[in-house]
Specification:
The protein has 7 helices and 7 strands. It is an alpha/beta fold.
Length: about 200
């Protein structure tokens, strides 16, 4: 059902233009990694999923989205799973760690809220990748954020950064702090490149 929904969305979105994907070769050939993408609107989720096909992304999404009937169906078709952002606990990383151990790809929006501003990143992506011993691929998106932008035929652009690995030459906590700093810097750099 994922592929059916993804290709239907691809056809629908292509009516308003195509996405330009840059540096897709940075995606690891081996499965089992985290994609950490900037988040400015709900359409970036769709374009991100379409741009990496035939790879499937399992999205981490706030639990509130699963409480709206129409959105719940869409989220399930997109292989999304809920997380409680207000009360994240050890259980919050069980599902993504299991998916990663099965060689699947987990998509996370570390800014949490939808914004075009540079905001402090949440640590979920780094925590999950660090404990799962998988890389994080930083991704930036610039383009339509809603139906109004789609009808204006704004160009959608996505750029994939080089995978970020947990440093092996330092204790895990320090390594994850370093990973967090690199992720933050890379996402900001990628977004600036798209705005040039």
């Amino acid at each position: 059902m994922y592929y059916f929904a993804a290709y239907v969305l691809k056809i629908f979105l292509s009516l308003f233009g195509r996405v330009k994907a840059y540096q897709k070769e940075n995606l690891p050939e081996s499965s089992g990694y985290v994609i950490a993408c900037t988040h400015t609107g709900w359409i970036d989720i769709l374009w991100l999923g379409i741009s990496v096909l035939p790879v499937k992304i399992h999205y981490m999404a706030k639990k509130e989205l699963f409480q709206i009937r129409s959105l719940k169906w869409l989220m399930q078709q997109l292989n999304a799973f809920p997380v409680d952002r207000d009360n994240p606990g050890p259980s919050s990383i069980k599902v993504p760690r299991k998916l990663l151990s099965e060689g699947k790809v987990v998509g996370i929006f570390p800014s949490g809220t939808r914004t075009s501003e540079e905001v402090p990143l949440k640590r979920g992506a780094v925590t999950i990748a660090g404990y799962s011993k998988v890389p994080i691929v930083p991704v930036a998106y610039v383009g339509p954020n809603n139906f109004k932008d789609l009808f204006k035929r704004k160009q959608a652009r996505i750029i994939f950064g080089e995978p970020i690995y947990l440093p092996q030459n330092m204790p895990r906590k320090e390594g994850m702090d370093s990973m967090m700093n690199v992720l933050n810097e890379e996402l900001n750099n990628l977004q600036r490149r798209l705005h040039q």
